[in-house]
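Hey, I was hoping to borrow your eyes for a little while. No rush at all, and the record is pasted right below.
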Amino acid sequence: MTFRMSSALANRFVHLTLEPDVDDWRSWAMGQRLAPIVTSFIGVRPNLLAEPPGDSPAYPTPRSWEMLSDVIRSFGGPEHCSDLIPGVIGEAAAIEFATFVRNAMNEGQMLAIVANPGSASVPTTLDGLYLLTTWLAYNVKREGVKEASAVLLAKIPPEFAMILARDMIKAAPTFARTDGYKAFMKAHGRLLSR
């Protein structure tokens, strides 16, 4: 049940309109360890972080993306809960998310890149790069991930390497001591001022 607040009552409150910030949300999501597929999808489709409610009771909000991450974890992956996804984030966002998931690299492909970062083929698409950088930062404690990430800084576009560097330092501050990070910052440190 809802009711309209009278103007006299409404006048007793401070009314603010807040807009979610995608970079802040991604940082928060990484800290909360949301599913990397969700965090990277929002990196690719930032306008879907929050949309006004339509006719459907389910629609994209920062809260619903967190809920989707919980659902994905509970079911063991997005492919096991595809029927639930529209009920969490709405039909239109669910269609885009399903396409993203269908085209995404799997964990085996990520591990192959970690095993041989110098010669591995890395993604070149926006969605592939977001997923790779998010997955690496999320899995920083896995054996070889920090070292592979330091090598990959030189292999991926500088804008994504900066995202990877920032996320890795948040997840593991000692990443700043790696030779790959130092070389990247020497060559591209100016990107920090942007």
